[in-house]
Amino acid sequence: METEIKPLDLTSEVTKVLRTEVLVIGGGPAGSAAGFWLAKHGHDVTIVERKKFPREKTCGDGLTPRAVKELGDMGLSTQLERFHRYEGLRATAHGKELELQWPTHPIYPRYGYVVRRRELDMMVARNAQNAGAKLLEEHEAVAPIMEKGCVRGAMITNKANNTTVALHADYVIIADGANSRFGRSMGTSRERAWPYGTAIRTYWQSPRHQEPWIESALDVKDRNGKSMPGYGWIFPVGDGTINIGVGLLSTFKNFKDVNTSNLLDSYAHMVADRWEIDPTKPECKATSGKIPMGGSVGPKVGPTHIVIGDAAGSVNPFNGEGIDYAYETAHMAADVIHDALTSGDAMALKRYEQLVEDEYGQYFKVARLFARIIGRPALMRELSRVGIHSRTLMEWVLRIMANLLRPDEVGPAEAAYKAAAAIVRLYPNA
Q1: Are strands 287-292 and 196-205 parallel, antiparallel or unpaired?
Q2: Which of 71, 160, 280, 314 is deepest in the core (most CB within 10 A)?
């Protein structure tokens, strides 16, 4: 069990006392993006990352059009082009498959990329450094520095030599991921009644590593053909390997009794012939993680701090995607803190929570309701059976689930979403 983080006072022996305008805790997608935008605004920003880049993270490695757009805004379009580009989603269920290109949208591109997280996160972190952010790798924020009830920095331990510094800051951004120990120390908690997910993945060698589609299986079965809870994915990485994983929602019956390692093994055997892999010889040991979803973690704002990305539960319950929302919430937080620093008014931070609510509140609510519905295996089987036989229906579903609804026109997908939103408004606690 992890040790609880408790605030420390400055009577503790420290090596030195340092200062920065903004301290970002966590150098993953959210933290590095926030550091980039704050540095671009001209602020003194320090990112603290517990591990050394490159490092592994449990992820499907797929970048959606929303994520590609944010990375482009950070000036990384050219660097992305060296990775594997894909055109859309191949949905499989009940012996059938549909290849669905990403939908048209006035803001987002019609393609994505598959990039291993060890490469993606290092690329974004180095980009933040190039913009002027300081990055402390192998440093851990072990406790908040509190002044009059507000966080004003953190005690930072250098894991290489076990020295500690007091790093003071005007504002703190908490971006330390799904487990968010620092966030918990500041009072964040997950809404226990809301769905969450778990995922496990690893890599296999495959001659089909350059497929132009990522694949999602809506009917995962064990080796005996029995339906299993959850969904499977296959993301061609373009480097000789494919990323194979399975995800599971907490709304599934007996969720906690499911052995995800066995589920992944069953899925790998299920797709072995088609993807030409040896299911008994993965490239590396599988890694897994728990995923808070649907904005389920709060509060997201304090007098001098903001919580972003996975640490705030900013993950889409429709598909488990979190990288795009990490980049987007980071951008919002950086803009809000920039306003606070330039105006000298910390009250500007309150705008962040409203920005997040305006952008994701209703959408996440619809997605949480969807997660509850598909937690019934019989219903999920019927929905997937109907969907896989209708390209038009699945194209609507893809637009909704990827959060690529058009703001400039109301098509069938937008109309269906509005109807669902009207329903969830009747359930304030959904």
Answers
A1: antiparallel
A2: 314
